[in-house]
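Hello everyone,

My group is preparing for a crystallization screen and wants a predicted model to guide construct design. The compound we'll soak is zinc ion. Before spending weeks at the bench, it would help to have a computed complex in hand. I've included the protein sequence and the ligand's SMILES below. Output in structure-token form would be ideal because that's what our pipeline reads.
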Amino acid sequence: MRVATCLFEAAAWRYAVRPVCRCGHSANFNPHGLWWHFHKRMWDDRLKSAREHFWCRSCSLQHRKRVRPVRLELVRQSEGDIELTFPPEREWKRAISRFRS
Ligand SMILES: [Zn+2]
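Reply:
Good plan to model first. Here are the tokens for the complex, ready for your pipeline.
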């Protein structure tokens, strides 16, 4: 099994990205929209750095502060995944061809 180290690989290999909070709350994100969200902002998409850009919704409602997830898991994509705006087709194709070369 290939182990993705960044959001782009997660998208290329079709894994949903799941930030897990210490409170047990988690959410699954579609990796394509997530990668594009980071790419547009020129954020580092390596999983370690990407973690800093997530925070737990239920903790923020309860404690009124932003709690970072303890880890990002990669899981099988499914219907209910949160979908951010997808990359335009040509951007995705360009990124994929860079990745494969
Ligand atoms: Zn939480």
